[in-house]
Structures are given as structure tokens and as C-alpha cells.
Amino acid sequence: MSTKSPENLIPAEEAARPFLVAALYHFVNFPRFESFREPLEAICRENGIRGTLLLAHEGINGTIAGSDHGIAAVLEYLRAQPEFSGLMHKESRASAQPFLRLKVRLKKEIVTMGVTDIDPQRDAGTYVNPAEWNDLISDPDTIVIDTRNDYEVAIGTFREAIDPKTKSFREFPEWVRAHPELKDKTKIAMFCTGGIRCEKASAFMKKEGFGEVYHLKGGILKYLEDVPEEQSLWEGQCFVFDERVSVGHGLDEGDLKLCRACRHPLSPEDLVASTYEAGVSCPQCFDVRSEEDRSRFRERERQIALAKKRGERHLGE
């Protein structure tokens, strides 16, 4: 009689990509957010979780990674709080821990737009499920807007989507106000990585007088997970804010790297450019950095390499 080893009982995907990544956010009135930071950080550390969680009066936002058991324990703890009983999250997997450390931070906003008097809980636009998204954005009466930043859009977006070319989400309201012609179309459809930015952006646009405002439920990540590649209107890869850098259809890890000097995603072509030096410069930042900056970055890389030889992790990594 044969017996199976414990390794053979582990699902193939979990064995190949053992780290579970959970992206989550929830808009809610949360006045006790400051006192919640320490217990939340404690439960994350107890379960070996890394990543970033942001807490503010308006709720929670973040992405964390760890073992399946550890992620389940943190999500169970969050949903046990009355404010987060309805918390939704999205899962993907990683072959290596995609975060270097754990950060639980207090913020004024869980996603920074800098506009007061908007309430995504009450005023957000209409959710559109991934299965219905293609029909909406293919409608000639629909304007499709990518609410992410320029470096994210550069590696992938939906066909025919408008790129506001913003450097940060704070610039989005100004961009909308500078383009009154947007109101010439009947419908506005917006999307972002996980859904949080376009949820807030949709509430802002409704406040600005736009009527039919829609946003992709679960964001690009949910679309790439649910919609088969052969039916997809997505082109390129989706930037993610962790060491995976990007994901593609099926949420498979992409082939991009990250410039440690400017944090921009780098294509295989960027990595062989004359202006690329690991941890020091890349084609995106070479012309805007001084030689003094590059000398400082080289020293940081040297210290990181020395720390690795000692079996330690350098704080600048």
C-alpha cells in the first residue's frame, strides 16, 4: 500500500508559488483607526505577514503576503471588526515573498486624492463586473479613463483608454477640471489596479456633475483573473506595488524588473540600455539624476551586497 508524502498533498500552484498575496480595501467611517494600528500590526507579525496596510478615518487599504494560513488569520481578524465585516479582498500567488517588510501606517486618506467632501461609500459610481466590462468600454458613447499614474499606464492598459499622464493621484481632479469636453460623452468608465482609486475618482466625478459614471469592480486584477485572455481587451502587463513588479492574464508574474533608483518598471530592453546600472540608474531616471545621486546609490548597492554576504538584510534594500 503506497502513501503520499505531505509534499504531494500540497496543490501544484501553491507548491510552485507558495506565497499568497491579498489586496484589500474598504471605505468605512473608522474613527478609531489610530488605536487599531498596534493590534493589527501585532496580528500580522504573529502570522509572519509582510506588506503595507494603511489606516485612516475613511477605512483601510493595502496589500499583504504570507502563508495561506497567515493571510487567512489576518483576514479573519479584520472581518471580526464591525467596521470591516463586509471587507472584500483579491488573491494572487507569488513564487517568493514580494515584500521586504511589514508596514502598518496611519494616513489622512487610504488613497490620497486631496479633495474633501467626497464620500465613496455614498457617492461612488456604478460597479461593472469584469464579465460586463468589455461591452461597456466598446460602446462608442463611453469614454474610458485610466486613473493610474503614467509609469503604470506605460506597461499596459485597455484598448482606447485615455491616459491622463498623471504623476500622482492628487493630479487627477485638476486633469478632469481641465478637460470639460469629457462631458460630451454619455458614459464615463474608469479603472485602476484594484478598484480603490477609481471608486474615489468616480465619487469625485459625480460631484463635478458627471451623470453616468462607471468603474471596474475589483479593478484590473479581477479582470485579469476572471476574463480569458482570448476574450480580453487588456494589452500589456499590470504594474503591482511589490517585488513581482507586474502581473499578466491569470495573474501570472510578469517579466519586468524594478529600478531601485526611481522605482519605475523596466522592460527587458531597458535592462540592456547603456543608461541602466543595477540599483543606480535606468533610461527613465538617468537624465534627471545627478552624478552625486548615482554615487550615493552605488554605495547603497555596495552595502546591500555586503549585508547579503553576512546573511543579513540591509535597510535600504
Chart the SSEs and their pairings.
Layout: H1 12-16, E1 19-27, H2 33-46, E2 50-56, E3 59-66, H3 68-79, E4 88-94, E5 102-106, H4 120-123, E6 126-128, H5 130-138, E7 142-146, H6 150-153, E8 156-158, H7 172-177, E9 187-191, H8 196-207, E10 212-216, H9 219-226, E11 234-236, E12 238-239, E13 246-247, E14 257-258, E15 265-266, H10 268-271, H11 291-309
Parallel strand pairs: 2-5, 6-10, 7-9, 9-10
Antiparallel strand pairs: 1-3, 1-4, 2-3, 8-11, 12-13, 14-15
Helix pairs in contact: 2-3
Oligomer: single chain
Poorly predicted sequence stretches spanning 5 or more consecutive residues = 1-7
How many separate helices?
11
Number of domains: 3
CATH class of the largest domain: Alpha Beta
Strand order across the biggest sheet? 4-1-3-2-5
Radius of gyration of CA atoms, rounded to a whole number: 21 Å
Spatial shape: globular
Specify the structural class.
Answer: alpha/beta
CATH topology (level 3) name of the largest domain: Oxidized Rhodanese, domain 1
CATH architecture of the largest domain: 3-Layer(aba) Sandwich
Tally of DSSP β-strands: 15
Sketch the major β-sheet: 5 strands, mixed
What do we call the CATH homologous superfamily of the largest domain?
A: Rhodanese-like domain
Average pLDDT reading: 92
Strand residue content: 15-25%
| Element pattern in H and E | HEHEEHEEHEHEHEHEHEHEEEEEHH
